[in-house]
Amino acid sequence: MELWPCLAAALLLLLLLVQLSRAAEFYAKVALYCALCFAVSAVASLVCLLRHGGRTVENMSIISWFVRSFKYFYGLRFEVRDQHRLQEARPCVIVSNHQSILDMMGLMEVLPERCVQIAKRELLFLGPVGLIMYLGGVFFINRQRSSTAMTVMADLGERMVRENLKVWIYPEGTRNDNGDLLPFKKGAFYLAVQAQVPIVPVVYSSFFSFYNTKKKFFTSGTVTVQVLEAIPTSGLTVADVPALVDTCHRAMRTTFLHISKTPQENGATAGPGVQPAQ
């Protein structure tokens, strides 16, 4: 049997499955997203090397330009509120909620200038994705070795002030799509207090109305992004970190529940006043 008829038949079968099965459509869209990440990372890496010659935070603007195009493939729209709070020319720690693999699109949609992220060390070895993250100045931490992670954070605290950097951290520490926020880890807040820089919370509304890994659906939708007022840390010490974490978590959780929409049994969506199930 010739190869091309087999490939054509397989492609037709895949298209048929996508049309008939919501799960097949979900996995096809996720696969496309992963393929886009790898392909765009390879191209963006080349552009970054040609433009800046190596690792620098300036590469983030190039990466952001590429990633922002992803939303057109998926019919996603980002409604950003009070973005000017991210644009102030001062170092700060930005904290946001972490829901899924799609968070990268949301991050790049509002990423301010001279902003780097903190990521787990395993991502560094993810082929072209790890390369583009390295070239963009991302700081990698080994979460299995707390002493190493603390050293990286201490160095970062000095560099963010010296080089006027903003640092973006997901304080939940892992992806979370349960309709609420997980408790926050304290690393981002220790960093802000150590550097005596403000914390700027950024809240993304729930993706649940258009992206759900449990029910296997992935459609178009709108994400509301609310940038909250900066929380100052000037004069605070390590002893103030627990209260700082609590203040930030409460503010972000209240905003998350207010701006999110959750699907009902018949497929309609509830308004912002309806809280997701805990």
Automatic annotation (TrEMBL):
Per the record, the domain comment is: The HXXXXD motif is essential for acyltransferase activity and may constitute the binding site for the phosphate moiety of the glycerol-3-phosphate.
Domain Phospholipid/glycerol acyltransferase residue range list: 92-207
Provide a GO CC annotation, any one. endoplasmic reticulum membrane
Q: Which GO BP terms apply?
A: phosphatidic acid biosynthetic process; positive regulation of cytokine production; triglyceride biosynthetic process
Tell me the route in metabolism or biology where this protein functions. Answer: Phospholipid metabolism; CDP-diacylglycerol biosynthesis; CDP-diacylglycerol from sn-glycerol 3-phosphate: step 2/3
Superkingdom field: Eukaryota
Family (UniProt) = Belongs to the 1-acyl-sn-glycerol-3-phosphate acyltransferase family.
**Which gene underlies this protein?**
AGPAT2
Could you tell me what this protein is called? 1-acyl-sn-glycerol-3-phosphate acyltransferase
The keyword Lyase appears for this protein: no
Q: Which reaction does it catalyse?
A: 1-tetradecanoyl-sn-glycerol 3-phosphate + (9Z)-octadecenoyl-CoA = 1-tetradecanoyl-2-(9Z)-octadecenoyl-sn-glycero-3-phosphate + CoA; (11Z)-octadecenoyl-CoA + 1-(9Z-octadecenoyl)-sn-glycero-3-phosphate = 1-(9Z)-octadecenoyl-2-(11Z)-octadecenoyl-sn-glycero-3-phosphate + CoA; heptadecanoyl-CoA + 1-(9Z-octadecenoyl)-sn-glycero-3-phosphate = 1-(9Z)-octadecenoyl-2-heptadecanoyl-sn-glycero-3-phosphate + CoA; pentadecanoyl-CoA + 1-(9Z-octadecenoyl)-sn-glycero-3-phosphate = 1-(9Z)-octadecenoyl-2-pentadecanoyl-sn-glycero-3-phosphate + CoA
Q: Give the enzyme's EC designation.
A: 2.3.1.51
For the keyword Ligase, the answer is no
Top enzyme class, one word, equals transferase
The free-text function statement in the UniProt record for this protein reads: Converts 1-acyl-sn-glycerol-3-phosphate (lysophosphatidic acid or LPA) into 1,2-diacyl-sn-glycerol-3-phosphate (phosphatidic acid or PA) by incorporating an acyl moiety at the sn-2 position of the glycerol backbone.
